[in-house]
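So, is this right?
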Amino acid sequence: MIKSLKRLNVIDGLEITAERWKIAHQYHRQRQNIYYQSLHQPGIVHGLGVCVIPPPKDKDVSPQHRNHRWVQIQPGFAIDSFGDLIVVPKAENYYIYSQIKNGISRLIYLVIRYVDPDELKLHNKIEIEETFRIEEQNNPPQAGEIELCRIQLEGEEIVLKSPKNVFEPTANCLDVRYRQQAQTKPLSLISIAVLPGDAEEEQQGLNRLLKSIKGLDSTYEGYQKIRQISTTDYQENNHNYDDVLFLSQQRSQQLSSEHFSFLQSYLNKGGIILTQISTKNTKLEELKIIEHQLLIEIERIENTILTANKRKNESQENSDYLTRMYPILKDELTEIKKSIIIEVDQLSFKIEKLAEKLNISLETWEELSGSHPLKNEPFLFQKLPTINNQSLQLLVGQGLIIIIGDMVSIFSDNQQNLSREIIRNNQELMLNILKFGYDRKQMQQALQKPLENQ
């Protein structure tokens, strides 16, 4: 909650009591916690490794617990999402209690959380030690919890093991792939959402894209998973919504009146709607390939003529041929571009109906100003990248962006034939789109409706 901090008003003659001492120190603690929360991501700072150990031989360990379910948490410390410091000063042994029912595999999370000494009510001690609690649970870590590892329990007799390959742990092996390291927060944490049951084919590519964002620019980071939202998720005063809502081509053409009402509300709150029109097995795909080939040939002729004029050593016959072919190819390119416009209009007809219902007028990439964020932030684009010798098309209007081409699918792991340059160019363009969505949401929130004074 956002509330003002309170500190002790120190004046001459003030009597220091236990309550006043606590107020004074609580103020500094709160400021420190806010600092950690604001500028740092929670996670492990140092240590807190986890390893499998044999059953302890202590007399305090009951016979039923003398099996291979023991792990040891190594010394270390972490910072949680509330800004509290979790310190484990010595190795701690822990027994995994979770059981499997009806032979069904079960995923458990081993987490650690901070324990405030005030909760323990140790009032008789002069000095009390801040401590922690280690727990196993079925749900992913929540606020205040730091994941140490996770384990996929399987089989009748569970024997915990260290994985042979840490990147591909098998059943009953400690999985440390998802441990979070404490680090400086990115300036922008970008999220993508889909409607339930939508964009199932594209979600894999979008998830991989989100994971790659930090590598493209360390000031940005993507949420680890695409979130599914329903039309009831966004209440009037709920600002915790996603930056980009991706609609598949099929869903964008099958929207109910309830969906339109939801999309309008989503746009008003600052989000952007991103959809894609596939060009696979269409006439536009053929035209785009021809356009690409013509552009390459025209550029080659221009370079050849320029070089010949400088060196004066090109044969007159060849020079005349190129000079004659150049206007022919330019005219053919003009006709191809006209045909492409017609095909784009036909393909995007239903999508443009979506824009009309949302009261949005669309502009092409070429019509956008040179200073538009999509062309400049964080990566500079003068023209759209190509995929399989096809140039992408982009239609933009306020919070609606339409990609004409198969851009999202190239991020999935079944695209093995694309060059690194093509993938990188499209990653950078997508980051421009996602950042545009993030910035739009932030600015729209800054202009939110006035609240009643409470």
Remarks:
- Residues 283-347 form one domain.
- The chain is about 35% helix and 20% strand.
- The chain has a mean pLDDT of 83.
